[in-house]
From TrEMBL:
PROSITE patterns: HTH_GNTR. Residues 176-203 form a coiled coil. SMART domains: FCD, HTH_GNTR. Keywords: Coiled coil, DNA-binding, Transcription, Transcription regulation. It comes from Pseudonocardia ammonioxydans. This is DNA-binding transcriptional regulator, GntR family. GO terms for molecular function: DNA binding; DNA-binding transcription factor activity. Residues 13-80 form the HTH gntR-type domain.
Length: 229
């Protein structure tokens, strides 16, 4: 195992949160791959920290569904199954539809401006961005909607759910047609939020998550059935 940027955790961030942030980014970027072992000692040496924050960070990432901790085997990057995809997108459909409805009622001008910036970045990334860039741009937009609700509980839950999604979404780029559809769906959701139409925002978000689930499952099936020459 080799971290892409070893010894880069600043002294002020050598906490479990700082270590979790670095490892999360390594998983999202694909540098740490599914099934890859995450030995505490190696990680601690690579990041220039003690083993305690590494151990705590691994527990945090386990709660997000990114890491699997097995007795006598230690930690590994979690492999994602089709059942995982179905479950996580089912959760997203419920939680994000609710968040969109609430955000339509509570969002401020500042929230809308932040979403407009996030949407503009998403459109810039479009098809030309890497899978990782597309996933992070999408993540930023969705997180801002949960932030706009003002509910710290919802923000925490959504952060965990979205982190799991990004770990898989970062593995494949959207083709032009799918990217254009996702951008249009985001744009329509944003307009519903600006109009403070909670019912429309809720419905559009549920439809968006459902179409994302269908594409994720199709990609999973294709990658699992791909013939390696």
């Amino acid at each position: 195992m080799q971290l892409s940027e070893p010894n880069t955790v600043p002294l002020s961030q050598r906490t479990s949160e700082g270590v979790a942030r670095v490892l999360r980014e390594e998983i999202f970027s694909g540098n740490l791959k599914p099934g890859e072992p995450l030995p505490e000692r190696t990680l601690a040496e690579g990041l220039g920290v003690s083993r305690t924050p590494v151990r705590e960070a691994l527990f945090t990432l386990q709660s997000e569904g990114l890491v699997e901790l097995t007795p006598n085997r230690g930690a590994t990057v979690r492999r994602i199954t089709s059942k995982d995809i179905v479950q996580i997108y089912s959760l997203r459909a419920v939680l994000e539809a609710y968040a969109a409805a609430e955000a339509a009622r509570t969002c401020t001008r500042k929230d809308i401006d932040a979403l407009l910036d996030a949407q503009a970045k998403l459109e810039r990334v479009g098809v030309s961005g890497t899978a990782h860039e597309q996933a992070l741009a999408d993540l930023a937009f969705h997180r801002l909607i949960s932030d706009a609700t003002g509910s710290s509980l919802l923000q925490t839950i959504m952060g965990q759910v979205l982190a799991f999604t990004v770990s898989y979404r970062s593995r494949y780029s959207y083709p032009a047609e799918r990217a254009a559809l996702a951008i249009e769906q985001h744009r329509n959701i944003l307009e519903a939020l600006r109009a403070q139409d909670s019912e429309l925002a809720e419905r559009l978000m549920a439809e968006h998550v459902e179409s994302s689930r269908e594409f994720a499952l199709r990609h999973f099936d294709e990658s699992e059935n791909a013939v390696v020459p």
